[in-house]
Specification:
The protein is α+β, with helices and mostly antiparallel strands. It has a single domain, classed as Alpha-Beta Plaits (2-Layer Sandwich), CATH 3.30.70.100. It has three helices and four strands. The chain has a four-stranded antiparallel sheet. The chain starts with a strand and ends with a strand.
Length: about 100
C-alpha cells in the first residue's frame, strides 16, 4: 500500500472551479484498478493552535493505491489527461508526496 498526498495551490479565486472539475473525475479514479482512497480535502476552521493558518486557495488530495504500478497507470489514464486540460489556468502549483507505511 502506498499513500499519496497532493497539495494543489489554486490560482486566486479559482478553488471552487477547480473542485468542480476535480469532483467530476473522482468517480472515474475510484474505479481504477488499485485505487483504494481518492478524494479532495480543504483546511477546516478550528481552534487548535498546532495547525497552520487556514488556506483559502489550497486543496489537499488524499490518496491510497495498492502499489506504484497502479499509481503509474492512474497518471496516464485518459480521464486524467482530460482533467488536466480542464484545470489548466486554475492551478498555480502542485506538490506530490508518495509515502509508504513505516
Amino acid at each position: 500500500m502506498i499513500h499519496v498526498i497532493a497539495t494543489i495551490t489554486c490560482t486566486p479565486g479559482n478553488r471552487a472551479k477547480f473542485l468542480a472539475e476535480f469532483h467530476r473525475v473522482v468517480p472515474l479514479v475510484l474505479q481504477e484498478d488499485g485505487c483504494v482512497v481518492y478524494g479532495p480535502t480543504v483546511d477546516q476552521s478550528q481552534p487548535l493552535t498546532i495547525t497552520t493558518p487556514k488556506r483559502s486557495n489550497v486543496v489537499v488530495v488524499v490518496e491510497q493505491w495498492r502499489d506504484i504500478p497502479a499509481l503509474q497507470a492512474h497518471l496516464v489514464a485518459p480521464h486524467m489527461k482530460t482533467y488536466r486540460e480542464k484545470v489548466t489556468g486554475l492551478v498555480d502549483n502542485i506538490a506530490v508526496q508518495v509515502l509508504e507505511p513505516a
